[in-house]
């Protein structure tokens, strides 16, 4: 099975200049915990619900003035739509992430995939193995 078969699409994105208050509202409104950040049509980074807490709430400065660019993780890890689910699980474990943006062969963002997608659509065992790698203390 391929990533394309289990990913969520179309993907909800934000721009680098999106205010953090709008980011939080989007996550809440869509029931999601991560938003890919795009600039000039390309993946620039990712903002997670944890980024909001760690880099905004516990950080200094006025939250209302911060944007995605201020709090995103730049150079986000990603996978390809044609990767196998086994490759996806290995990437998640290697990079210790639970969600990945999905790119096509032209490096365009085409979806998002999560550890939950693996568990729901493929194998709870494979998802569990990946989770073990994700939470491993390194």
From TrEMBL:
SUPFAM superfamilies: CBS-domain pair. Residues 7-64, 72-128 form the CBS domain. Gene3D superfamilies: CBS-domain (3.10.580.10). InterPro entries: CBS_dom, CBS_dom_sf, Diverse_CBS-Domain. Keywords: CBS domain. Signal peptide: none annotated. The keyword Transmembrane helix does not apply. PROSITE patterns: CBS (PS51371). Pfam families: CBS. This is CBS domain-containing protein. It comes from Rhodophyticola porphyridii.
